[in-house]
């Protein structure tokens, strides 16, 4: 697959659900910020991946200071985030001027494996897009005005990131105004008329959002983490 590969890593969290004044992407995890772990995952998957980090403008200097403090040497471009995730991803896409593939990933998912990353790129190369998902473990119920009903969990998937696309497809999809039902990049691509392809994710690929997530992340990070 001789084609340019990009990763847009979106890191605009505020830390509200973490009950922390420090945004969750900058919280230390076994010695360095969560966000550095996330960037490393893509670099280790393929050093040729060009990384675009999307940050709120008021966090950029703080990040650059962290880079110096931790002697973080992985090359990456910084794009200024917008007022929403949709706008932030759109800003990140606008920095990419050539064709190829792009994986769009949450900055606070630091345990994505290289196998999942590379499979997502390969599937997007073959089919136009690849959305990482896992099956539900728990029973689910749909809540409605008259009560609630049990649903067949085998018919549902939990959506993770990265969400990987042919750049031409996702740029065209983002050439629209933001809608309330745009909850992720797949929903934007789907609204543009694209069929969505699901690929297997991992239960290790957690999104660090709450204090409980951080406790789990510390366990994952302290064990011998396998790059595969």
Features:
single chain, 228 residues, alpha/beta, Spore Coat Polysaccharide Biosynthesis Protein SpsA, Chain A, two-stranded antiparallel sheet, 7 helices, 32% helix
CATH superfamily: Spore Coat Polysaccharide Biosynthesis Protein SpsA, Chain A
Radius of gyration: 17 Å
What's the tally of helices?
7
**Shape type:** globular
- The portion of residues assigned to helices is 25-40%
Number of domains: 1
Oligomer: single chain
How far the N terminus sits from the C terminus, by CA atoms, comes to 19 Å
Count the beta strands. Answer: 11
Unreliable segments of 5+ consecutive residues? none
CATH architecture: Alpha-Beta Complex
Quickly describe the structure:
By secondary structure, this protein is α/β, with parallel strands linked by helices. The protein has helices at 34-45, 60-69, 85-94, 114-127, 167-173, 185-191, 211-222, and strands at residues 5-10, 28-29, 32-33, 50-55, 77-80, 101-106, 129-135, 140-144, 147-151, 157-166, 198-200.
Task: Report on this structure.
With 228 residues, the protein is of the alpha/beta class. The chain is built from seven helices and eleven strands. A seven-stranded mixed β-sheet has the order 5-4-1-6-10-7-11, sandwiched between helices. α1 (34-45) packs across α4. The model has no long low-confidence stretch (mean pLDDT 94).
């Amino acid at each position: 697959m001789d084609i340019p590969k990009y990763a847009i890593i979106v890191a605009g969290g505020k830390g509200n659900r973490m009950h922390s004044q420090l945004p969750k992407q900058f919280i230390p995890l076994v010695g360095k910020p969560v966000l550095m772990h996330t960037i490393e995952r893509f670099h280790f998957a393929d050093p040729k991946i060009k990384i675009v980090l999307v940050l709120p403008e008021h966090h950029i200097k703080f990040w650059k200071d962290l880079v110096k403090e931790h002697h973080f040497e992985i090359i990456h471009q910084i794009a200024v985030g917008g007022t929403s995730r949709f706008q932030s991803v759109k800003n990140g896409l606008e920095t990419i001027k050539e064709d190829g593939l792009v994986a769009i990933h949450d900055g606070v998912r630091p345990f994505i494996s290289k196998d999942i990353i590379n499979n997502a790129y390969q599937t997007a190369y073959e089919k136009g897009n690849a959305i990482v998902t896992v099956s539900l473990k728990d029973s689910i119920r749909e809540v409605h005005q008259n009560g609630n009903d049990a649903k067949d969990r085998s018919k549902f998937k939990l959506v993770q990131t990265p969400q990987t696309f042919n750049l031409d497809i996702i740029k065209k999809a983002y050439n629209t105004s933001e809608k309330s039902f745009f909850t992720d990049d797949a929903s934007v691509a789907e609204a543009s008329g694209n069929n969505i392809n699901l690929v297997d994710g991992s239960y290790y690929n957690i999104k660090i959002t709450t204090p409980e997530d951080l406790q789990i992340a510390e366990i994952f990070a302290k064990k011998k983490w396998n790059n595969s």
